[in-house]
Structure formats: structure tokens, C-alpha cells
Amino acid sequence: MEAFLEPFGCTSMCSFIMDSVADGVFTIDLNWKITYFNRSAELITGVSAESALGRTCAEVFRTRDCEGACVLKACIERDQRILHRTMTILHKDGTPMQVTISAAPLKDDTGRIIGGVETFRELTGFERPGRPKDDRTTQEFCTRDPYLSDVVRILPQIAESDATVLLLGESGTGKELFARAVHRLSGRSKGPFVAVNCGALPEQLMESELFGYKAGAFTDARKDKPGRFELAEGGTLLLDEIGDLPYSLQAKILRVLQERVYEPLGGVRSQKANVRVVASTNRDLARMVDEGLFRGDLYYRLNVVQFKLPPLRERSQDIPLLVEHFLRLRRGSTPGKQISGVTPEVMRILTRYDYPGNIRELENIIEYACILCPGGLIEAGHLPRHLRPAAPANNGGDLPMSMVEIRLQAAQRAVRRNQGNRNAACRELGITKDTLRRILRSTGEDEE
């Protein structure tokens, strides 16, 4: 690396810095031979730098994407950076891994391209032999946010205890995801995980939903029915939106937490509750206590361990990671489509939006865009209308684009981006040249 970066005035210090970053970093020369391979690249791939140096990147990463959609080749040919693409590589042990990558050309002092540099980061949850269970579970959280990173780091220790956990945050911030992680990382992971929305049922039904009832407790109670506490026995119970729990029931929940017993409706004997409780809400419980709307003793009993999950608008650095994560999930449910990522324009739009619906809204946006995108890169025209850049007025009125129009627009833009190189446009879109020709035929652009 030191010899390779000498034209840039970087020697041992540059190498030290590159070995300190969390992302994998490697460089190639114009013969596609690897000239540098940092410490994180070794850890992610299982391949030592000594083994990687001098070999082609295709030999080391063993990805099919090298055949027709090599990101490094594209960035060198176009002389531009390429950001946030997703690809699958093979770990040294043969396990496939999904990674998000960015690449840029390397130049000497005269501006001549002498190679390329690529950074890559493993995405979520691939199980490889020897990887601890805790590591696989916490990888579900796509974050670079310092606070959330600290939460994820200590989550295994919190889960190992039996302490009650209180999750605060706006709707859609991932509170149930954290609750499920607490369950999976705990000693109760083989038991059930049961969730109940405290604001979804009328007050008169909530008690029987939580604690169950005995036959004869009321007119239609012909047989015993277990409540959520009984169904969660030996496992974890999520009391979602606990801020909406009726005041009259709060004392009964407090008794369960303090004494580990409860009584079903119509019952004469208390039942033991071997249940770990996780509570979540989007309301300000401390303020509700001050206003007399929530019991203070229950609040402090719930508030043993508290995590406040920030809204997505406060963690915009996580949006590229989440976009890649949701695209990976969609690939498994959209066979026949090869969606490789999003354009820089789309990423700018997504990172500047304020997401009133938080992560759930971003997931819905990506799902919508995947439905409209025929393949290749998601463009601005594939986004929901409220996110698309304002278009000039036209005589046809504000009518939605048809799928044919969307395909045509995507094809035309890909050809323009590649300076008329249709082979490159086909690689970017993930389609054949015949398909591109058919798409362009309607405008007479199919003549080469």
C-alpha cells in the first residue's frame, strides 16, 4: 500500500489509518490486481492480506457481479465515484455475504487514472460457522448512530438479565424489533414471544385479553380462555403502546411486575407469571405521570432499563444502510427482477426527507419503488409522487406515468448516463440488449 500510494504523499500513516477504519478497503491497479487489503477487509472476507495481494479482485471476492456489472470497472471507465451499491461476495469458507460497496478511481498527481479503490461493509445477519449468536442478532440493526450503536453493543448484557425494559420512541422507529432482539438474546429465547397492543382493544376487553378468564366469568364464557400473560409463560411479553393502557388496569399490571402473580377474570386463585415484560410507547410517560394519567409506581417499575429510539430524521446517516437492507429483503420476494441499487439522485432525495412515519415509511417507499422499477437502478420516477422532483407542467395534466413510460424513461437515462454505450446501459439496468431495443423501439431510438 505504501508504494502504491507514494504518488499521493501517503506512506505508513495512510496505511495505519486505513487499517483503523471499520469498512473493508482495497485498491487495484489497471490490471485488476489487488495492491492493498486493509485489516477490516481481512476480517469480513476471511482472506489474509498476504493471500489477497497480487490476485485479481474477482479471484478474492468470487462474485458473479464481476461478469457484467463490475463497479470498479464502471467507475474507472466513467471516471466518477459510484456509491452505495449492493452485491454478494463469498466468504473464504464459501458462505455468501451481502455487502454494500462504494468505489472511486485512483489518480496520480497528473490526473492520470492508475487504479481504483473500493470500500465495502457487510450487511445483516449471515450465519457463518463460529460467529456468535449475539453478533448475528445485533447485526439486524443497520446503524452508524453513536447512541444506537451503544444500545446495540450493550443489548446482549441487558437481555441476559430479567429486568423490565421500557422502549420509548415515535411510531415506526423499530421498538418491536428491539423487543424481539431482547427476547432472542435472552435465556428465554426458546420460550414464546407474545405482543399485545394496549391501545387496540376496548377497555372492557383489555383485562380478559391480558389475564384471560374462567368458564362462567360472564354470560358467553363457556370455557376457560388463557390471557397473554399465560400464553407468554416462560418467554417474553411485549406490552406495546402501554401509554394507552386504561388507568384501572395499571394497578393489576403493577401487581404482576411486583409479585409475579395475577388472577384471571372469574378466578378464585392467583396464577404465577414467569414472564419477562418489555413495554413500549410513543407517549411521554413522565409527563403523563405529572398529569395524573399514568401511575407513578408503575412507571418506575417499568423504567428499570430505558432505551429511547431516535426518529429517522435524526439519524440520516443510517438511511443508505437501511435502503440497502430493504432492497436485499425485496430481492427475495421479486424473482426475475435484478434491482442493483438506487441512483445518487434518489439517495439525495431519501436522505433529505423527514420521514414522519420513520423506518416503516422508508420500507414502504422502497417496496413501492421496487414494484415500479423494471430492473437496474431505482430512479426518481419510481418513487412515490410526493418524493419526486417537481416536473414542468404539461398539457396532459398531472397523470401518473404508465409502466411503459417508466421503463422507457429508465432506459433513455441509462443510455445517456453511459454516453450512448448500450452494452454498459444494459449492464446497469440488468437487462439484455434485445430488451433494451424493444423498450426504445416506440420512439424510434432502436436504430444504432
Could you tell me the strand content as a percent range?
15-25%
CATH homologous superfamily of the largest domain?
P-loop containing nucleotide triphosphate hydrolases
Looking at CATH, which topology of the largest domain would you report? Rossmann fold
Count of individual beta strands: 14
In angstroms, what separates the terminal alpha carbons?
A: 44 Å
What is the level 1 CATH name of the largest domain? Alpha Beta
Structural class: alpha/beta
Structural features:
20 helices, Rossmann fold, 448 residues, Beta-Lactamase, single chain, 39% helix, disordered N terminus, five-stranded antiparallel beta sheet, Helicase, Ruva Protein, domain 3, alpha/beta
Overview of the molecule:
By secondary structure, the chain is of the alpha/beta class. The chain has 3 domains: 6-122, PAS domain (Beta-Lactamase, 2-Layer Sandwich), CATH 3.30.450; 146-309, 3-Layer(aba) Sandwich (Rossmann fold), CATH 3.40.50; 315-441, Helicase, Ruva Protein, domain 3. The protein is 39% helix and 17% strand. The protein has helices at residues 12-18, 39-45, 49-52, 57-61, 65-68, 71-78, 133-138, 146-160, 175-185, 203-211, 228-231, 247-259, 285-290, 296-302, 319-331, 344-352, 358-372, 403-417, 422-429, 433-441; strands spanning 24-28, 34-37, 82-90, 96-107, 113-122, 165-168, 193-197, 236-240, 261-262, 271-272, 276-281, 305-308, 339-342, 376-378. Strands 2-1-5-4-3 form a 5-stranded antiparallel beta sheet. The protein has a 5-stranded parallel beta sheet with strand order 7-8-11-6-12. Helix 8 runs parallel beside helix 9 (175-185).
